[in-house]
Amino acid sequence: MCVLDAEGLIVQLNPAWENKFNVVRGDIEQSPFLAWVHPDDQASSRDQLAQLFSGQSSVSFSNRWRDCAGDYHRLNWEISAVPKSPQPRFEKAGRIFYAVATDISTQKHTEQVLRDTEERFELAIQGSNHGLWDWNLKTNEIYLSPRWKSMLGYQDHEIDNHIDDWCRFVHPDDFTQMWGDIEAYLDKRIPRYESIYRVCHKDGNYRWVVARAAAVWDENDQPYRMVGTYVDITERKQIEQALQEREALLSAIFDVTKIGLCVTDEEGRFVRVNSTYCELYGYTAKELLGQHFIKVLSPEHHERAIKLHQGLLAGDPTVEHEGEWHIQDRDGHYLEISFSMGVLTGPNGRRFRVTTISDVTKRKRLELERNRLFNFSLDMQSIIGFDMSFKEINAAWERTLGWTKAELMEK
Fold first, then answer.
1. Does the pLDDT at position 121 exceed 60?
2. Hey, which of 86, 107, 116, 154 would disulfide with 149, CB 3.0 to 4.6 Å?
3. CATH of 2-109, one of 3.30.450.20, 3.10.50.40, 2.130.10.10, 1.20.272.10
């Protein structure tokens, strides 16, 4: 507290100034009030004092006040005129004014920190292009940021700030899941709230959003506020859906083909097999996936098959990429298969071997039977090309004409 005269001089300070503001009363008393005010605050402080000195009974204002060390304190002033001083020592001062100063430096600092924090938060929200919502769980009032509303195609004034207006935009098929996620989080059955659902745009189309939020609980462990964001992930969901449809199509093609197909990784483990491949060997896909490919081969083929696999992935040009094998299925039946192999490089640089197999057992048997009939027929039979030269003749030619097969093939 201090006393001012009608000239704006400090007549007296109480002892609290020395303890609170690091000042020496003798250095300040009889000096002008404005001499201790920050230069940027002097004009406004002078105006307030002028009103007081011109007859106003009291004024309230704040300014920055300098102590004897040169440091400034933010003070709030309440100054009132005293009609007649009750103390004889103030008689020479004439009309006096009692001034009560309250140090609000900490309060002002806190307010500035809060403003800075709010500004950073607002800039972060704007920069991230997220829609903000702030829900009062006690009143069901909800703040929906202009960006939140614009994500759905609306102006700020077109949507009221109430939970019912928020909920009406959620797709009917997603509402139960969305609300259930909120309840589970507020009941602390899940550690954090994150929910993906569809919301209706003003144009009638639905947009996919991911909602994330955090709640605040009171001293009774009851939630009273929930603040969160909306992020539009429609484009991501469309890409995911397109990939799923593409994967479904490829899987359908993979499984519908009558050629056996398998994909093995660099270590030789099955990562994909189709139904035809499984049928040929007598296994289910579940039994093969994750297993080494030698599982379906007879022991006598293991060494050769592993060398083929390693050489193919290493890019060895001498490795055969196609051919025929004798195999034995799970039940012990022997089969003739034709195979073709290639290398597929994934987006992460990993290499995979893709193998196709076809059961040619019946074809081989038919070829053997055809050759047997051809070679042992009593009739002269031959195969002639378009150039009218012999491509193949049977033994009846040699018996009938007396020439050797080599001589006849030159004709």
1. no
2. 154
3. 3.30.450.20
